[in-house]
């Protein structure tokens, strides 16, 4: 007799994303994967930066009160916003869960709550209702390890560090220097540490899911695993484990794909600084002239409001616009995964947010790293010095340096090794994700693990 394979049909999972683009994307990608395995998915989200339900008709979306004030949101102080969310959302989430539990039909119980590590109020609410929980960490193991080291160094009195130490290597954290440590630029050090300590506390959660892959992050993962009491499932890159619909908060301008279709193979440098970072007028001008002088075609995402003092691209010099003609294409927001997978794209100038970094690596696109804050500095260092899949632009924005970096990455012979390594890493990731590979196995183990939580 043939064995009946157990499926999670009817089992329900509640997912709680942190309301920022770089966190919403991996959580909804994870939801799409788990839905494809037979789980039903409910997304509990804040009103602030709420995801669009119309992109995901297969999920149920439930908003909760987040209590954020207009001045706090407009301050852009992400640490203060996350601390406020944790203080404000616990009661509304508990209430939401209680209502859901009361309404649930037999056989359709909530099996588990999967929450972003920064939405740690979810763990307390899950405990209150006796529902198992799992943490999603959307960042790299390298950054997680560096963040833990910041807490440790602070407890020993080494943080904050004097300026004279900023270029010194951090003991045990090669190749990071003190200035690369992922310390937030917003709020006080105390509040940053409070958030980190709380988000690193596993509490009574049953497991951790990481959006990373062992062929990339192995050494940092091994260090984390040594101190972790619960299983860690590394199933990234999450955007690759399933074909998830877009979860962009801004409208994607797909006209750039038609423009890319007209460009030669691997000729275009794609430029984007993600969903949060911003730059000033001087940096904008240096970027613009560096790109123009490189003579490479470029696709540049300039988010509305990301240039200090202007709504969009009003501050771009007129001579620049005339100089580039058809060679440059500027959009407010791009379908980034599609862009990076396009054959015309041969390089990515990135701020090294973890999603952008993973999306680039998994398409074999080498990078110019220009980190702005926090984890981006760690990733820029790893991309350029450990994985050697790109170049880092250090210090001030300067057009000559930018021009040379673009040419090295895209065309010059001294960039050949970087381009070859990027191609090789793409293939290694593909092997890990295909049947029999380590990522493939971890995904199946995760599904089994979650199903067993209800037993
Ligand atoms: C934030 C932090 O800034 C980052 O350091 C951290 O690692 C994650 O959270 P963000 O700056 O937005 O994220 O960067 P990133 O992690 O790269 O996420 C941006 C996401 O938006 C990516 O998934 C990318 O594909 C998407 N994107 C970006 C678009 O879809 N279109 C764009 O035009 C630009």
From TrEMBL:
Gene3D superfamilies the record matches: Glycogen Phosphorylase B
Keyword Glycosyltransferase in record: yes
Keyword Cell cycle carried by entry: no
GO terms assigned for molecular function: quercetin 3-O-glucosyltransferase activity; quercetin 7-O-glucosyltransferase activity
Enzyme Commission number: 2.4.1.-
Short name of any one Pfam family annotated for the protein: UDPGT
Record-linked SUPFAM superfamilies: UDP-Glycosyltransferase/glycogen phosphorylase
Keywords: Glycosyltransferase, Transferase
Alphabetical list of PANTHER family matching this protein: FLAVONOL 3-O-GLUCOSYLTRANSFERASE UGT76E12-RELATED, GLUCOSYL/GLUCURONOSYL TRANSFERASES
Family of the protein in this entry: Belongs to the UDP-glycosyltransferase family.
Protein name listed in UniProt: Putative hexosyltransferase
Source species: Rosa chinensis
Organism placement in taxonomy: Eukaryota, Viridiplantae, Streptophyta, Embryophyta, Tracheophyta
């Amino acid at each position: 007799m043939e064995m009946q394979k157990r499926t999670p049909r009817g089992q329900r999972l509640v997912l709680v994303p942190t309301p920022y683009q770089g966190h919403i994307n991996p959580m909804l990608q994870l939801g799409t994967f788990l839905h494809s395995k037979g789980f039903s998915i409910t997304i509990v989200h804040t009103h602030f930066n709420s995801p669009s339900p119309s992109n995901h008709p297969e999920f149920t979306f439930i908003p909760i009160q987040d209590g954020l004030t207009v001045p706090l949101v407009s301050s852009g102080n992400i640490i203060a916003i996350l601390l406020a969310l944790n203080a404000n959302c616990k009661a509304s989430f508990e209430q939401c869960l209680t209502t859901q539990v009361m309404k649930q039909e037999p056989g359709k119980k909530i099996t588990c709550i999967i929450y972003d590590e920064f939405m740690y109020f979810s763990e307390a609410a899950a405990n209150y209702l006796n529902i198992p929980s799992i943490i999603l960490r959307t960042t790299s193991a390298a950054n997680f390890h560096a963040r833990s080291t910041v807490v440790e160094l602070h407890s020993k009195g080494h943080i904050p560090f004097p300026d004279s130490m900023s270029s010194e290597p951090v003991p045990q954290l090669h190749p990071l220097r003190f200035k690369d440590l992922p310390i937030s630029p917003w709020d006080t050090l105390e509040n940053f540490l409070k958030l980190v300590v709380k988000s690193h506390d596993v509490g009574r959660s049953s497991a951790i899911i990481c959006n990373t892959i062992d062929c990339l992050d192995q050494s940092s993962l091994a260090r984390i695993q040594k101190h972790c009491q619960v299983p860690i499932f590394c199933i990234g890159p999450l955007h690759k484990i399933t074909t998830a619909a877009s979860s962009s908060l801004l409208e994607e301008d797909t006209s750039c794909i038609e423009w890319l279709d007209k460009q030669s193979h691997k000729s275009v440098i794609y430029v984007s600084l993600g969903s949060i970072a911003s730059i000033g007028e001087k940096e904008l001008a240096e970027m613009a002239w560096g790109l123009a002088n490189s003579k490479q075609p470029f696709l540049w995402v300039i988010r509305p409001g990301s240039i200090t003092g202007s709504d969009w691209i009003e501050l771009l010099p007129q001579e620049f616009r005339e100089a580039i003609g058809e060679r440059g294409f500027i959009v407010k927001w791009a379908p980034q995964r599609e862009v990076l997978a396009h054959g015309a794209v041969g390089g990515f100038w990135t701020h090294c947010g973890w999603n952008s970094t993973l999306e680039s690596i998994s398409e074999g696109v080498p990078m110019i790293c220009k980190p702005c804050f926090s984890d981006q500095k760690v990733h820029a260092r790893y991309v350029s010095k450990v994985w050697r899949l790109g170049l880092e632009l250090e210090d001030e924005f300067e057009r000559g340096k930018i021009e040379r970096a673009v040419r090295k990455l895209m065309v010059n012979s001294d960039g050949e090794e970087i381009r070859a390594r990027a191609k090789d890493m793409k293939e290694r990731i593909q092997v890990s994700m295909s049947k029999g590979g380590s990522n493939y196995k971890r995904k199946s183990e995760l599904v089994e693990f979650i199903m067993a939580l209800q037993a």
